[in-house]
Amino acid sequence: LTWATVEYVRSLIPVAGSWNVLANTQYNNLPLVQIVSVTGLWGLSFLIAWLASVANYAWERGLAEPRVKRVLGVYAGVLTLVLLFGGARLAFFPPLSDTVRVAAVPKIDGENDIDALGELVREAAGAGAEIIAFHEAAFRIAADEEADFVAQAQEVARQESVYLLLPLDVVGDSPTQPHQNKAVLIGPSGDFVWEYVKPHLVSHEASTGYAPGEGPLPVAGTAYGQISTAICLDADSPSLMRGPGRDGADVMLVPGADGGIAAIGIYISPLITYMDDFRAVENGYALVRIAFHSLTVAVDHQGRHLAEHNHFTTDQEIMYADVPTEGAWTIYSALGDWFAWLCVAGLVVIGAWAV
Predict the structure, then answer these.
(1) What residue spans of the chain are helical by DSSP H?
(2) Does pTM top 0.90 for this prediction?
(3) Residue 310 has pLDDT above 80, yes or no
(4) Across residues 339-355, what is the average pLDDT?
(5) Is 41 within 8 Å of 7 (Cβ atoms)?
(6) How far is it, in rounded angstroms, from Cα 20 to Cα 3?
(7) Nearest in space to 94 (alpha carbons), one of 311, 302, 269, 251
């Protein structure tokens, strides 16, 4: 109870989020992971920490003691039910909807190169992509050039008839015009769908004059389901990412850039992406993380990897994935952190009882 409570409280700090949460270690155990669609990460962390308590209890008292056998039996029974639930969810409720081809571009390195953008969009559209998304801050432009750049991108999207997610690193030139890390979604007719400014800034952004965004994550109805977006660190916040799940999002696009850990490279940076896989299972939407200097993936709402692109092991510029256009309702997206609050209450009650 203490472990789950501490993890939950820490997750409410934007820069902490789901980092160092014990549940993340189980990212590739899909039958076990399905429990987060009910309890969030906290139920899975609870199970792991509870196992440690049970093992210690048995070690101290000996397996022959009847009470120890009952404790072991209760834990084994709960774990079995969790695994049966996960296995049944995977086997009997897989994604069956139509799919949309998403092109993720994690390797264009920036400035304001509209020609490079146009070339990649045309290549992706020629391969059948209907949604094209670039990595975080893929295009670095001055604030007074933003409108013209976006207008040119709108024309590219209109010519190729695609949805285009355009992550921008907008450089302001005065205290009244701060820098912005944002994402713009452009529709296939060249229409402006939304502008989203990243609210959860990493330390170097906060210290170099970036302004955080406000408000919930955007959700827009399209021919390919409800589409939403978050930017990099935003996706590490379960509470922030639950909003689109509650609002019926079907596809979540997450531009990211993990260059700050490039020295660690292939051994650690994929774990950042694996952490975000849990948001898909929690909230019932497919998720595509387009990550510079990291692992780019597309997963369905049950956490299956549909496509991968590792920055460190491939020279390809574009990853393609056929992503389900219909998500799934989950208890977690509807009720939120009910299990975490149950752990908080349980800790208070047991603490008072012990005193």
Answers:
(1) 2-11, 30-33, 36-39, 41-61, 66-92, 114-126, 146-160, 203-207, 238-246, 269-283, 331-335, 338-354
(2) yes
(3) yes
(4) 97
(5) yes
(6) 12
(7) 302
